[in-house]
Amino acid sequence: MKISVFSLLLPEFSFEEQVALLRDLGYDGIELRVCDIAPEHQGKPFSNWGNHKDPIGPSNLARSVPRLKAAAAASGVEICALGTYVNLLDPAAFDAIAASAVELGARMVRVNTPWYDGREPYDRLLELAVAGLESVETSARRHGVKAVLEIHHGSIVSSASAARRLFEGFDSAAVGAILDPGNMVHEGHETWAKGIDLLGPYLAHVHVKNATWVLKEKPAGGPFAWEVRNARLREGHANWRTIVQALAAAHYGGWYSIEDFSDMPIKDKLGDDLAYLKALAA
């Protein structure tokens, strides 16, 4: 079992500090967030989706490669993937990022799928996504990397079935899916073994987090209102023991990347998550 951490969780650290921390905790790799900081977040307190101490984005990735590569090599922590925000509706930025991924030794580059809010017909969004994926697949093949699409609530790919529909006809050596059970608690849950079976050769990466449904309001006469909240790995609706067993049965040999947003001091959380995953795999 190869275990990494998505650097989205480490906004208060420089890259050098991130890989040193993960080395000391016993992690194998890091999934590097590639996102420029929006003007409204610059100078604000560090946060997962806001300001970062050491932001790496499309604007500075290429010139940052020597520093990132040297720090990763010195720590022994592998850069396993680049977590970008390139969307299939606008895939032009993928090619340059893929070239940097090759220099960093990262074999996967995350690409986002269109969001679905009901204003645009699903079939039209799927058509546009397929066109974008054709461009991304061509670039991924040329660079020898894999474009990986995260199963995410609110998008057109919120389930394993929806991912398989998008991928049909594409080369599984060049494109694949990120199984994200935490996201699938929100939307898209199929039994874990069935979802993994559905993804088949397109299963490329796994994000590790959890979430749970909690009762928000109980109005007289109903309907009750529920909402999803982040949860510890062992406490949420996604049964990670079952998931790890299903992945093992499918002979999955890829990365497990921690993306745990539960409320706990980061070093304690990452230490506990690593120990828990290793215990499940034992």
Nutshell version of this structure?
By secondary structure, the protein is of the alpha/beta class.
Assembly category: single chain
> Could you report the average pLDDT, rounded to the nearest whole number?
97
Rg over C-alpha atoms, rounded to the nearest angstrom: 18 Å
| Number of separate helices | 9
Which shape, going by the Cα principal axes? globular
N-to-C series of helices and strands? EHEHEHEHEHEHHEEEHEH
The low-confidence parts are none
Topology:
Blueprint: E1 2-6, H1 15-25, E2 29-34, H2 61-75, E3 78-84, H3 94-104, E4 108-111, H4 122-143, E5 146-150, H5 160-167, E6 175-179, H6 181-186, H7 192-199, E7 203-208, E8 210-217, E9 225-231, H8 240-249, E10 255-258, H9 266-281
Parallel strand pairs: 1-2, 1-10, 2-3, 3-4, 4-5, 5-6, 6-7, 7-10
Antiparallel strand pairs: 8-9
Helix pairs in contact: 1-2, 2-3, 3-4, 5-7
